[in-house]
Structure formats: C-alpha cells, structure tokens
Specification:
This protein has 304 residues and is mainly α. It has one domain. The chain contains eight helices and five strands; from the N terminus they run βαααβββααβααα. The strands form two sheets. Strands 1-5-2 form a three-stranded antiparallel beta sheet. The protein has a two-stranded antiparallel ribbon with strand order 3-4. It is globular, with a radius of gyration of 24 Å. The N and C termini lie far apart (74 Å).
Length: 304
Amino acid sequence: MLAEPYLTRVSAYALPRGDLGGSAVEQLIGTVVGRWYVTLFGLTFLWRASRHLGWRRTGIYFAVALGVGLVAENASVHLGVPYTRYTFNESLKGDEIFVGDVPLMVPLSYTFMAYFAFCAGRLIASGPYRLRAPRAWHELAIAWMLGVWAIWVLDPVSRLGDRFYLGELFRYEGPGFWFGLPLGSQLGFAATMAIMLLALQRLDRDATDEPVSNGLRDHPHLVALITYHAQVFHLAAVAFYLDADTLGGAAVLIWVPAAVITAVHWSQLGLRRQEKGKVGDTAGEAAGEPLDGPGDLVRGPAGQ
C-alpha cells in the first residue's frame, strides 16, 4: 500500500478480491464477476448502443473508446499525462486481467460512461418529444458537461473505496482543489471525454430528427438517461452512508441547477408543441365547408 500524499482515483469501477490464483480463467472471472457493477453497466451499454447504432458502429465506437482509455491510463501511469501520475494497486495483478499496467475494466468503463452521457445529452437538448436538438453542438455541449460532472462525483467518492465495496484500485499524487483531486486529472478526463463524444457524433451524424409521439416514456434515450443517473447517484448515496456529507451534498448541489434548467426547457418545448397543435386544429377548421348557417363549419380530420 502506498503512503500519503497519494490519493485513490476512479476506483468507482474496481474491487480488489484477494488471491484468485492467477490463471487466465480465474483472471477472467475476477474481471467479469468481481467487477459486477461494470459488467452490468457494460451489458446495458451493449443493449442500447446496438439498437441505436447497430452492431458495426457499436463495435467501431467500442474500439475507439477502449483505445482512448488504454492509452490515457497507461500514459498517465508512466508519464503523468493526461491525468497526472498515479499507480495501480500491484496486488490486483493475477486477480484480474491487466493490459500494460492498467486493469482492463478501467478503460472498458470509458465505453459506457461516454455513451450514456452522449445519449442523455441528446435527450436533454432535444426534449422528450423529438430525437434531435436544432444544432448538434447543443447535444455535444450538454453531453460533455454530463460526462465531466460524473467524474467530479465518481472520483472523490472513489477515494473512500477501502470503506465499501469498491475497494482500493490505485493512488495518485495530490493534493487538489476538488476534495483533494488534482485539477490536471479533471482537465485530462475532460479532454478524453471530448474525443469519445466526437467519435460518437461522427458515427451517428446521419441520425434524423423525428417526433416522439408519447414523449419521454417512449423516447429511445430514456434508458441511457436513467443509467447515467444510476452511475452518479448510487455513489452519492454511498458518500452519505459513509458520513461524507459534504461530498454527497456537493453531488446533489451540482445536479439541482441542471435539473431545474432542464425542467424549464422541457416545459417550454411542451407548451410550444401544444400551441402548434392548436394552430393545426384551427387551420383544419378553417379549411372546412360551410353548413346551413353562416357561422357553422364542417370540421375536417384535424378538428374531429
């Protein structure tokens, strides 16, 4: 175990499990079963992304995100770029699969973290009754905010990993301004998140804007929005459980303004949709034929 001032980072998707013997099968079990929370998020990602992008584009994005994660994590371990320098827990080797000096499930988590932020950003920007926002950058800006915000919650809670199921994964040099986390780590993840989001935007650039008749409950990105929140708030709840009330409260305080702005934005979109519907009904009535009385109109299909 490394001594202070090293601080645990991103153990939100890691769990030390003791000696499994080190065989390939045991390492695979340690990776898939021991990191059950990553596996669950990963399966949800494959389910939604395959329906959204198709298997071919999902595979391309998966390779890009995994590659970005492997390069960024290994470069930070050896060079301190882009997340500042840190070291993984050496005792995990033999318990799970490593690629270079990084546990495989750490870069694997990049795939679903960016995807859920991307789809949630698209839903928030477009509103519950459309598939796309008026401009692509509206979707990307919100997705980038969501992706970085998630790390601002996951990273500091991960410092407490030795007190709950996450366990200790790795440590890096501190201190930092955000609950001891270095600014370079957060800026570095903002950069890698931007790369993955741009890759998703490129792969899904031909997605059309279509109406969603029943609103949020039938929106194809609702599951991604829910899963994104599950990533963040289950760790915020852990922070409160561990009496880290300032940390848990910070997570909630970051969320509240965004939630209020989203509610107002969606309400405005709903009102505009209702107004357009009324205009359509009026136009349908005006197109009808007069009856016996001069003020009576035969209603067309839009007015029935």
